[in-house]
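FIELD: query
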Amino acid sequence: MTIDEATFRSVLGRFASGVTVITARTADGLDHGMTVSAFCSVSLTPPLVLASVAMDAEMCGILRSVDFFGVSILDVGQEAISRRFAEHEGNRFDGIGYQRGKSGVALLDGVLAHAECRIVTRQDAGDHTVFIGEVEDATVSGDRPLLYYRGGYTQLER
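FIELD: result
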């Protein structure tokens, strides 16, 4: 027996998660990005991370066609960036500062941390695809994360 979708969403909504923007650059040189809260570490040795992306999201097809993705872990003051990369229209990178990683992916400015990942596994799981990446380069620069909890943004109390 499985639970209904509303109960499942309610239960998982109680799990606070950080907010990331996953980026990729296609062979034609175009940058793509998407807000992802379904992100976590998988292994320390080797250093692996996981991002889960809905199969009907444009980013899913893009991640199926590239070798690398970037992860920008958002700072508490970057809710607007999270919302922008969660939208489905327009060039999400317009007016957003970023730098190029060693693999060529866009890494957003002013974030808590970056990771550049080489995709090592693509696995369909229900209505999502799980992408596992080996972290080949990373930087850390901040200390207060943007959090997502019960369907909205929040922050850690000091």
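FIELD: remark
The two ends are 42 Å apart (CA to CA).
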